[in-house]
Amino acid sequence: MEIRQGYSYHIKDEFFCLVDDKYLMSNKEQGNYRPxxxxxxxxxxxxxxxxxxxxSQAEKYKEIIEKKKKRYGxxxxxVIGLFAGKENAFLIQNAFPVxxxxxxxxxxxxxxxxxxxxxxxKLLVENLYKVLAMCNCGIKLTFTDIKxxxxxxxxxxARGGDST
Length: 164
Description:
164 residues; alpha+beta; seven-stranded antiparallel β-sheet
């Protein structure tokens, strides 16, 4: 499967079984494949993708953004943007790395892949890398253990586990 930035994807259950992190937003029961994740290719390792959960609960997250802005002066961990014509929250705070073999399928509506606007993509990339840079400096802004998950994915790549 070709993974392209600008689209969202569903992740296989196998990934969530392998990476036992209670903060991962895993698939729901009965094969409903929610949530879906916005994919951003890693700058250093092109076989690694950062997955940002997309939530339709934009109003709930707007309140959280406002609280963070009042407390810290800004909020890089949640971005509100249009997805499929509706406001959604992109939860950088719940982002995680994954390799291609764990992608299940692209997210579609009426069998058409859904994209995000290039301006939103740019904002998501900028915020993701700001959050990752802060995490690398010891400031934990994500709920998920991105260092541990990245290690698991890179070890799998080293063993040749990048094919589907």
